[in-house]
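Take a specimen:
=====
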Amino acid sequence: MRTTAAVLLAVLPLAGTRAAESAFTVAGRYEYRRDAESLEVLGDAVCFFPSPGSAQAPPRLRSDRRLAWFCFTDTRRSKKMLGIQSPPRTNACGLTGEATVRVENYVPYVGEGDGFDTASLHSVRRLSKVRMLPCQ
């Protein structure tokens, strides 16, 4: 029993490291939300929601049934690369667009409660025009 526990403790950190080092290309929608609720939960972050055809790209455990989305770790750089240059108008709660991006250093959130996966935006391969996100 102790041997099994020791092996698991030795292997689990490696699995987490492997996922964090993964690089992949994913297509989908990005959002930069500025409404009070989003700022409270996400902070100042650009987040990405893979399209159904790309939803399997992020390296996650098979048992993880959450919607596959993540936020970029460097907001300033991500905003620049995605063409997010201005804050949304007062009647909008954020900005959105479609893109195909290359992502590195993906880290799945494994805690309980509020939290989200993170990744570094490495490059942008395809980019739509930025649009205003209406308030809900």
Notes: The chain has a mean pLDDT of 82. Residues 2-134 form one domain. The beta strands are 24-33, 46-50, 70-72, 92-107, 117-127, 131-134.
